[in-house]
Amino acid sequence: MDFGYLQVLVRNVPPDADESVSELVEHFFLVNHSDNYLTHQVVYDANKLAKLVKKKEKMQNWLDYYQIKYSRNESSRPFKKTGFLGLWGNRVDAIDFYTSEIEKLCKEISVERERVTNDPKSIMPAAFVSFKTRWGAAVCAQTQQSRNPTLWLTEWAPEPRDVYWHNLAIPFVSLTVRRLIIAVAFFFLTFFYMIPIAFVQSLASIEGIEKVVPFLRPIIEKKFIKSLIQGFLPGIVLKIFLIVLPAILMLMSKFEGFISISSLERRSASRYYLFNFVNVFLGSIIAGSALEQLNTFMKQSPNQIPRTIGVAIPMKATFFISYIMVDGWAGIAAEILMLKPLIIFHLKNFFLVKTEKDREEAMDPGSIGFNTGEPRIQLYFLLGLVYAVVTPVLLPFIIVFFGLAYVVFRHQIINVYNQEYESAAAFWPDVHGRIIAALIISQLLLLGLLSTKEAAQSTPFLIALPILTISFHYFCKGRFEPAFIRYPLQEAKMKDTLERAREPHLNLKGYLQTAYIHPVFKGDEDDEEEEILGKWEHDGELVPTKRQSRRNTPLPSKFSGSSSPSLPEVVEERGQP
């Protein structure tokens, strides 16, 4: 059964002194969408409750660890200190301590759960609304609901796995302010990010270390230590800063208030690509930080900027060849070997793993990470376009990289990574836009380069290239982009008709009324799995993978197919006996 395109998120529900948010939503849709409205689920501000539940799970994990430890040696009870990280504080019985802490947390969770469900202030002016037909949902999601365009705002709801619940509690009116703040912060991050790197790298030099810690001078002056510091320490510092960058960009996206994981990753990917373009591509061609580049460009006339960069491009071909080999080829090799997850797993296994649940979580490979992988690949695509004409010797290195990347990532997606959500190809418009931008950049830089050569007379004729590329972009934007934003009513009507013919007695309400309940209001994991299997036997679907994993989840996706594997196959895939 395909449950896609039946849910709509409505925000900015106007306050009413006589009705609750839930009653107001129900009455509004019964009046304005009486033929298609099915049910709804209001959005709760359950962030505090989620923190308590997470803290309880952590405490329960420690209790399981100490109980297992005691069961192996019942001659002595395990003890712990109550201070920070167990380093100081009163020495208490570990099992009794965590048992009492869990009991306290259970009471707090019960009180907080009661408060959230009963306190009107905990209910946000938003709701997930489900419809009987895709046609009705499409009409609601893609039209203005009120004469006041700032009230009853509707949009397509992300699938349940894709919802970022923490941001649903952010008031809608504050989103514009948050995004303005982050836009300014990202500007300063892009143009000043190299300043702390340069400062730390100066401290990581021989002179900097001797100035800060002069008593280490006899050790630093040794030939091996000196060569190690000079050769590796600055590069390691740079890599550490760049490793931290995606996490910073993701935090910025979360602060902006996006309500789905896919939109968080899309925004982070866009900023990561822009940062790489300014600080890696332009920063390597024009020596200096991004701020110095901006200062250089502001002192020139606009028509001189392509010329300045065009002259510098051929001289950096060797650097980018080595960059592709070291960062690109080595990165693909590290991807197939899974070196980073392997190291992280062993660190977690040594320091953090206490129970089998911890070990299973430590072994979880996670998702592919579109917010970092896709911008890096598009940076190499930009390098290939720029140097295809200028220095064709770089092309074989790019082709080898893309060939390896295709084989490796295809294998990883099928056999290794988990699919955390289904975004209905929402990444593609961004990817297409960056490809077009790379084409235009390469054409402008080619114009700048040719203007310095004897072929300057041909430059005016090449102006047609970016004009044609921009025209092609607007054609694609008008022809294909609506397919990623709007759902055709003709397609919705056709699917509704087919569904009624195939399953005339289908009960949608039983599933849809619980699909968007906050995770903290659901039962424990085992109960959810039994519920999922029982639901699937009637009308649900599971995501089959080639790995035995307990993390397979229901697929209430917008684009899930109608065919389903048999129940024995699903049980076998889930590793159940």
UniProtKB/TrEMBL annotation:
Region (Disordered): 529-577
Feature: compositional bias, Low complexity: 554-568
Keyword Transmembrane: yes
Residue span, CSC1/OSCA1-like cytosolic domain: 8-167
Membrane-spanning residues: 180-204, 224-251, 272-291, 320-339, 379-409
Keyword Ligase recorded: no
Record keywords: Calcium, Ion channel, Ion transport, Membrane, Transmembrane, Transmembrane helix, Transport
Domain CSC1/OSCA1-like 7TM region, first and last residues per copy: 178-450
GO cellular component terms attached to this protein's record: plasma membrane
InterPro entries according to UniProt: Csc1-like, CSC1/OSCA1-like_7TM, CSC1/OSCA1-like_cyt
GO MF annotation list: calcium-activated cation channel activity
Listed Basic and acidic residues bias regions: 532-541
PANTHER family named among the record's database cross-references: PROBABLE MEMBRANE PROTEIN DUF221-RELATED (PTHR13018), PROTEIN OSCA1 (PTHR13018:SF93)
The protein's name: Calcium permeable stress-gated cation channel 1
Lineage, highest ranks first: Eukaryota, Viridiplantae, Streptophyta, Embryophyta, Tracheophyta
